[in-house]
Amino acid sequence: MASVNKVTLIGNLGRDPEMRYLPSGEAVASFSIATTEKWKDKAGSAQERTDWHRIEFIGRTAEVCGEYLKKGMPVYVEGRIQYDKWTDKEGQEKTLTKIRGDRMQMLGGRTGGGDAAYDDGGASGAAPAPAPRAMPSSGGAAAPKKSKLDDFDDDIPF
Question: Is residue 145 over pLDDT 80?
C-alpha cells in the first residue's frame, strides 16, 4: 500500500529565517511559524491554542525565504514531516521534529509578501522557467490594450 507524508500549514513567522550553507554550497533556510486555533469551550469562553512548527527549506527556495521572509509575515508552506534523531554528549537520545518544505507562498499585501509563490520544481531543484511575455508589436497591427499589471515593477525574481 502506498503512503503519504504531506503537511500544509498557514501561519506567521516567529523570526527572520536563519540561513546557512551546506558544504556543497546549497542554501538552507530555517525558521518557525505559528499556527493558532480558536474555539469556544462548553461554558462559551473563548479559547486559543498556538502551535509552533520548525520549517526547513533547501536550495533555491531557501534563498528566496532568506531574502524575502521577515518576522511576523503570513506564509503558506507545503512539505513533509521529518524526524531527526541523535545522541547528545550525555548519551541521551534526542529527537527533533521539523517540516522539510517543498513549496512556499508569501501571503498578504505588498508589505506582507504579495501572494508570490515559489516551488523548487521537485527533486530536480531546477528553478521554474519564467512565464513568456508578450512581445511588443512592430508592425501595422493595433497594439493590444495595456493592463495595469504591465506597469507593475517588482524586484521579486519569480
Answer: no
